[in-house]
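re: ur question from yesterday

yeah so i grabbed the chain u mentioned. its 164 aa long if i counted rite. heres the sequnce exactly as i have it in my notes:
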Amino acid sequence: MATRGTDELHQVLIRDHFRRPRNRGAPEGDAHEGRAHNRFCGDTIVVWARVEEGRIAELRFDGRGCAISLAAASMLTGVARGKDAGEIAALRQRFMAGLGPEAAPLGKELGDLRALAGVRRFPSRVRCAVLPFDALEDALGSGEGDAGPGTTSGEPGDPRRVRA
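ran it thru and got these structure tokens back, copy pasting raw so excuse formatting
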């Protein structure tokens, strides 16, 4: 179990990613788009993944939601860069395993996402933390290569964009 000091540091990191999100906003040019919606709380996350040679070269997000889902999206954009779809699936599996009620600490490979370990105490919030993974998997499943079905140019008037 985490100590009180560790919990406070994690809360600070979550607030920082929520207030000053990294990689927020549509990318320049074409990218695979994926989205996920939590029907229980209304959170929606959209991610854009530019894939080169089978790996994520750029990952950006936008959305509306709670501090957990938006911070998780910001954190995921840093962790996922350079990885392929198989590595993303493995990261998701390790993340989900670490959010169970009797889970071991989250591994270093999850980067800042480790700060979300405390949501295991609130099972209804686990879905918020995992939502960005759902959107990313949707984007990666949208086709192979640099562009394909489900892509968007990120134009400001594009109806597929979600604004926070």
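noticed a couple things. The beta strands are 31-37, 44-52, 55-64, 151-152. also Residues 4-152 form a domain with the Sufe protein. Chain: A fold (CATH 3.90.1010.10).
anyway ttyl
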